[in-house]
Amino acid sequence: MLHIGCHLSSAEGFEAMGRTALSIGADTFQFFTRNPRGARAKDIDPQDAAALVQLLKEHRFAPIIAHAPYTLNPASADPKIRDFALLTFADDLKRMEYLPGNLYNFHPGSHVGQGVDKGIERIVEVLNRILDPKQHTTVLLETMSGKGSEIGGKFDELKRILDGVKQNQLLGVCLDTCHVSDAGYSLTQLDDTLAEFDKQVGLSLLKAVHINDSLNPPGSHKDRHAPIGQGTIGTKTLAGVINHPALKNLPFCLETPNDLDGYAREIKLLRSLYKG
Ligand code: FE
Ligand code: FE
Ligand code: ZN
Fold it and tell me: How far does the centroid of ligand 1 lie from the alpha carbon of residue 146, in Å?
């Protein structure tokens, strides 16, 4: 069975997100842990979190994904910016213990002129300080488009982060179809791209997929998402992604520009293209 959902607003609360997901035929979803700008998160309501945990279990959801604010930069040269990323990640992971067994996804960061090596070193340091062997959340590095000085646009960069982290059994990777296409990895030649991923990182570390079309051509290093079938990747190629033997059992999450009805339609479309 295809596990699929979309990005939802966490403003409505945990259990409400679960109900919204059910109402659009989803069995997973993603939410921002706080305002994407990284502002203070509102206090966790343990009862609301417990109600979501119950709902996820009852309706056999695939793991859900909490997304870190995308403005955080653990690779920054500025110690204040790195500290802010570290404190936010640590606080988010503490909160995620109310939703045990799920995923926490973040953008590795941008080296902003320091060079890839230094950037990777800084990301590794932050991860080594926040990961706790007792935590119940898997932390995912997202594949990036390689826009600007972004780290993670090459599989090998993700591998180097994974290799540097001591508690790397707590880490995995989230593959974003828009980002990998923009980064120059072919989705029409998906076997080759996944073979490359397997060689560089290891397919067993792939824990989730962001299923998006792209506004820009392959290799553009842009990162602008398009609705399914309205971009340069196309429905047929994305159907190949959800049906690929190495991917088909993972949770797929839409991050396409859409309202709830649009998400419901895309979920229905992708379910109809899934060969089971
Ligand atoms: Fe992301
Ligand atoms: Fe994404
Ligand atoms: Zn993106």
Answer: 13
